[in-house]
Amino acid sequence: MGYLLNGTFVEACDCRLMCPCWTDDEPDDGHCTGLFAWTLDAGSTIDGSPVEGARVVCVTTHLGRRRGETAKENTLSVLFVDTAHLPAGTDADDAFRALGLAFSGE
Fold first, then answer.
1. pLDDT > 90: what percent of the chain?
2. How far apart are the C-alpha atoms of 65 and 14, rounded to whole Å?
3. 37: left (phi over 0), alpha (psi -120 to 50) or beta
4. Mean pLDDT of the chain
5. Which of 2, 22, 55, 75 has the fewest CB atoms within 10 Å, measured from its CB?
């Protein structure tokens, strides 16, 4: 899957100062719940199909570090994909599937 994604990214979590998960440290209080949101700007594509105007939000919670085998067992993520503002003529169902795959790491 080839993609070019440009836009705005916002992240927040319940850790005290900076999310230690970005550096693979233990989260504050042994768990982390975070919100990650993207708005995709003009020129954003997945496999050559336009996805500009789409919005994607991921809510995730995990115990301990986010990397490694134990992270897979201790992480729950929910992905929300909004395709209401795609360019005219874009197949929203195809864009929805492609965005879901791209942002879930598939």
1. 50
2. 15
3. beta
4. 88
5. 2
Instruction: Identify the burial level of 67 via C-beta atoms within 10 angstroms of its C-beta, where 0-12 means exposed, 13-18 middle and 19 or more buried.
Output: exposed
Q: State the Cα angle at 94 between 38 and 53, rounded to 5°.
A: 35
Q: Which residues, in sequence order, are bridge partners of residue 81?
A: 56
Q: What is the pLDDT, as a whole number, of residue 52?
A: 96
Question: How far is residue 43's CA from residue 20's CA, in Å, rounded to a whole number?
Answer: 32
Q: For residue 59, is pLDDT > 90?
A: yes
Q: Are 59 and 78 in contact (CB under 8 A)?
A: yes
Asked if 38 and 25 touch (Cβ cutoff 8 Å), the reply is no
Sorted by sequence, the CB contacts under 8 Å of residue 15 that are 6+ apart come out as 21, 27, 28, 32
